[in-house]
Design a protein that fits this description.
The chain has 229 residues and is α/β, with parallel strands linked by helices. It contains 8 helices and 9 strands. The strands form 2 sheets. Strands 2, 4, 5, 6, 7, 8 and 9 form a 7-stranded mixed β-sheet that branches. Strands 1-3 form a two-stranded antiparallel sheet. Strand 8, helix 6 (161-171) and strand 9 form a beta-alpha-beta unit. Helix 7 (186-202) runs antiparallel to helix 8. It is globular, with a radius of gyration of 17 Å. It starts with a strand and ends in a 6-residue tail after the last helix. The structure holds guanosine-5'-triphosphate and magnesium ion. Residues 48-49, 68, 91 line the site of magnesium ion. The site of guanosine-5'-triphosphate has 22 residues, from helix 2.
Length: 229
């Protein structure tokens, strides 16, 4: 084990401002300052596992679809404003029969990425039901982000970008379209969530509030990410 001086942890512990998981050390391979749990939710086959694999390994899981059974997680450490933020990302099974298994994990999650498939209308229509479930099982202040995945499949699109934007606006949550296949917006989605969680955990009373919607818009424009599929 390597130990790192973690002024953040001490400060937070002293003034008791955070209920987040703040840890000061890690194994040799996994060096981090602060850790959060993120959950991927959405109907079966929308691409949750592929989004996670793209983010974690930079690869696309093409070929035959293998539905996730139960729940699984992967860790990734990202840099946020010079802080090492560990995201423990839980990949849930979208199939109905596993729902009771995944419910048990909601309480621990600090962020939820709610995913639909832009080529599958029912997966979009079910987002409201997912949000009802989230309100029932998740923490009240959980960070939620809506993702319309498979943006590379322009010819098969049945859910317009504007529909995703409208729903997200109604629910007051950030939104973007992603592609686990091309990688479009995958890093940005996780990074925005990591930044929001880090700000919530470390914010001092007089610090300016982090505005996730504005951050996403500024980064989208920077990378020109949404112009191509
Ligand atoms: N073209 C394209 N195909 C994708 C994308 N993401 C996932 N897929 C494909 O969609 C299928 C389902 O992907 P998964 O990631 O396994 O779906 P899932 O949401 O994890 O499904 P469950 O585990 O059953 O909940 C697979 O055949 C993937 O190759 C994407 O961004 N673009
Ligand atoms: Mg899966």
């Amino acid at each position: 084990m390597s130990t790192r001086k973690a002024s953040l942890t001490d400060k937070q512990a002293k003034n008791g401002t955070s209920k987040y998981v703040l840890e000061r050390c890690a194994s040799v391979n996994e060096y981090y300052d602060i850790a959060f749990k993120v959950m991927l939710l959405g109907d079966s086959a929308v691409g949750k596992t592929c989004v996670l694999v793209r983010f974690k390994d930079g690869a696309f899981l093409g070929g035959n679809f293998i539905a996730t059974v139960g729940i699984d997680f992967r860790n990734k450490v990202v840099d946020v404003d010079n802080l090492k933020v560990k995201l423990q990302i839980w990949d849930t099974a979208g199939q109905e029969r596993f729902r009771s298994v995944t419910h048990a994990y909601y309480r621990d999650a600090q962020a939820l990425l709610l995913i639909y498939d832009i080529t599958n209308k029912p997966s979009f229509d079910n987002i409201r039901a997912w949000l009802t479930e989230i309100h029932e099982y998740a923490q009240k202040d959980v960070v939620i982000m809506l993702l319309g995945n498979k943006s590379d499949m322009a010819a098969e699109r049945v859910v317009k970008t504007e529909e995703g934007e409208k729903l997200a606006k109604e629910c007051g949550i950030p939104f973007m379209e992603t592609s686990a296949k091309t990688g479009v917006n995958i890093e940005l989605a996780f990074h925005a969530v990591a930044k929001e969680l880090k700000h919530r955990a470390t914010q001092q009373p007089n610090d300016p509030k982090f505005k996730i919607h504005e951050y996403i818009d500024s980064q989208k424009h920077k990378s020109g990410c949404c112009k191509q599929a």
